[in-house]
Amino acid sequence: MHPTPELYGRLVYRFLLTRQWVILTLITLLLIPVMIELGFWQKHRYEERSARNQLVTDALSAEPVPVEQLTSPGHRVTRTERYHSVTATGTFDTGHEVVVRRRVNSDDEVGFHVLTPFVLGDGKVLLVNRGWIPATGSQTAFPKVPEPPAGRTTITGRLKADETTAASGIKNVEGLPDRQIMLINSAEEARRLGTDVLGGYVEQTAPEPKGDTPQQISDPGKEDAPLNYAYMVQWWLFAAAVPVGWVVLARREARERARTADGESTPRAEPAAV
């Protein structure tokens, strides 16, 4: 007597209760929510990066404003203020100029950024990153720095937030050679200069330096938000594929076991009499 199809199906799929298949099923049930959550994390990163790219685009395309409209001594430059184009009129103080170590240009060459105090009409100081110069000599000696425009001048640049180790990953090394620093930080420069320094600093974009040196710092690049979007879709496709794969494997196993069971139940033919 052959079992009913329903009973036969239950018998064939009893292998799902074996240790191997229980473990496989538990792993499958665990992977699905994990992959869904990873997809949502990538979605969050996509939205975050897209918003950040839009802030940068809006800031770079905005009309320049006087720097003191956006910052003041002790002010922390915000995300919406960062990269905003600003103008300032004053005089470069090359006597207190410093260089920022281990900075690279667009060709990944290591050198220095030139940080020059810019004294405004009211006596406050704006830190101006005039650009990049190569490290051609000793790392312990102050490099030869091209002179900025003399006398009273007007500059334009991108407003940047103070650099910190936490945000940049750059360690603020102690005991550096004279007039060399690792991070651009307005609070530290205010202590060094003994005067009021506007929060943050400016990457100079105009006027352009004579002889193309220091090399002006290029516009900030955009973060690759579409990559996070692709990862989001990928994780969710994986989450959908996992249960499909489990079903395919289970049905294949059932077919193999059914064939084996049918073969064992088929009586062998008696050999013909001689």
Automatic annotation (TrEMBL):
<keyword id="KW-0812">Transmembrane</keyword>
<feature type="transmembrane region" description="Helical">
    <location>
        <begin position="229"/>
        <end position="249"/>
    </location>
</feature>
<protein>
    <recommendedName>
        <fullName>SURF1-like protein</fullName>
    </recommendedName>
</protein>
<dbReference type="GO" id="GO:0005886">
    <property type="term" value="C:plasma membrane"/>
</dbReference>
<dbReference type="InterPro" id="IPR045214">
    <property type="entry name" value="Surf1/Surf4"/>
</dbReference>
<keyword id="KW-1003">Cell membrane</keyword>
<keyword id="KW-1133">Transmembrane helix</keyword>
<comment type="similarity">
    <text>Belongs to the SURF1 family.</text>
</comment>
<dbReference type="Pfam" id="PF02104">
    <property type="entry name" value="SURF1"/>
</dbReference>
<dbReference type="InterPro" id="IPR002994">
    <property type="entry name" value="Surf1/Shy1"/>
</dbReference>
<keyword id="KW-0472">Membrane</keyword>
<feature type="transmembrane region" description="Helical">
    <location>
        <begin position="21"/>
        <end position="41"/>
    </location>
</feature>
<feature type="region of interest" description="Disordered">
    <location>
        <begin position="202"/>
        <end position="222"/>
    </location>
</feature>
